[in-house]
Amino acid sequence: MAVGKQYDYLVVGAGLFGAVCAYRAKQSGRKVLVIDKRPQLGGNIYCENIAGINVQQYGAHIFHTNNRQVWDFVNSFVEFNNYRHSVLAKADGKIFNLPFNLNTFYALWGVTTPREAAQKIAEQKTPLATEPQNLEEQALALVGRDIYEILIKGYTEKQWGRRCPDLPAFIIKRLPVRFTFDNSYFDDRYQGIPLGGYNKLIEKLLSGVETRTSCDFFAERRQWEAWAEKIVYTGEIDRYFNYEFGKLEYRSIRWETEVLACPNYQGAAVVNYVDGQIPYTRIIEHKHFEFGAQAQTVISREYPAEWQEGAEPFYPINDAKNTALYGKYAELAQKEENVIFGGRLAEYKYYDMDEVIEKALKSFEAENIP
Ligand code: UDP
């Protein structure tokens, strides 16, 4: 370590990206400090125990991956349960299965076979001559008018606060379309929730690592930069560069959490409310992620919200304008030799947890740590 430096690595943000980097740095004998502005560690996978139930404070996270290396990595810290995610959508009081599959097509149109369903979708589809230019075109080309209007349009527009023609096509590609009666939300081979909740994973990753919570990097930026040889930065990339080119836009969310005196409120971990006039997008009933048998239950209504300064930025908005602006910041980031930028906010990317872990592991391979 150079003279005057106190740490080999300062990790700004104790979410998954930061925690994996801190683990790898500690494992290789480097001196590392993790700071986070929140009062607790874990970033958006942090859980609070309410009425004996692990309540995911920052929205539902279901671990899923096809990457064996990532799966082995997380399993070296915690075991996972056999939870398989499937989602219900409530539209005009009726329940539909998600992602779109034969159960959904049966409930919508009464079709009972793959052939009938494919025929129905073919009638409904708007074929495209070129690549879809936006989410509406993508949805109409993929599943057609009925599904777009009943299950996609209202949900998507309230989630993102933008019209579907103004949103990028890739968002909807996250959802599979299946001609089987398979309600699994994810196609991935490995899935589950850590036994005992996500905090266990973070605790294990950060075991033996020096951490400071309620500690804002920007309050004493000069000091941190002077103390650390290298920085792993997981916060908003535009803030790191003092908004030099202007501000990136984010989508925020707020949750209203309630303890209810009944053992089972909705019979599933996630029910989406797809009608445009209902202000929340979904209700999460946390106990179902861990097959809880408690007498009470805890639910969270999820309200999408416009992001303003001071609010929590949850989703990057990868439309053309913001993507171009991010590109300018990414160029600056490349020139910062002693800083690793990673995670949803620093890379302005709609990342899943397994991708974040993979990226963090790769970033540290590049560090040539033995
Ligand atoms: N989506 C939809 N209707 C639904 C669920 C999802 O139209 O009932 C679309 C919507 O555009 C959303 C995208 O699929 O932004 C991805 O949904 P997902 O549930 O994967 O989003 P996340 O859980 O990451 O917020």
Automatic annotation (TrEMBL):
<protein>
    <submittedName>
        <fullName>UDP-galactopyranose mutase</fullName>
    </submittedName>
</protein>
<dbReference type="InterPro" id="IPR015899">
    <property type="entry name" value="UDP-GalPyranose_mutase_C"/>
</dbReference>
<dbReference type="Pfam" id="PF13450">
    <property type="entry name" value="NAD_binding_8"/>
</dbReference>
<keyword id="KW-0274">FAD</keyword>
<dbReference type="Pfam" id="PF03275">
    <property type="entry name" value="GLF"/>
</dbReference>
<keyword id="KW-0285">Flavoprotein</keyword>
<feature type="domain" description="UDP-galactopyranose mutase C-terminal">
    <location>
        <begin position="151"/>
        <end position="350"/>
    </location>
</feature>
<dbReference type="GO" id="GO:0050660">
    <property type="term" value="F:flavin adenine dinucleotide binding"/>
</dbReference>
<dbReference type="GO" id="GO:0008767">
    <property type="term" value="F:UDP-galactopyranose mutase activity"/>
</dbReference>
<dbReference type="InterPro" id="IPR004379">
    <property type="entry name" value="UDP-GALP_mutase"/>
</dbReference>
<dbReference type="GO" id="GO:0005829">
    <property type="term" value="C:cytosol"/>
</dbReference>
<comment type="similarity">
    <text>Belongs to the UDP-galactopyranose/dTDP-fucopyranose mutase family.</text>
</comment>
<keyword id="KW-0413">Isomerase</keyword>
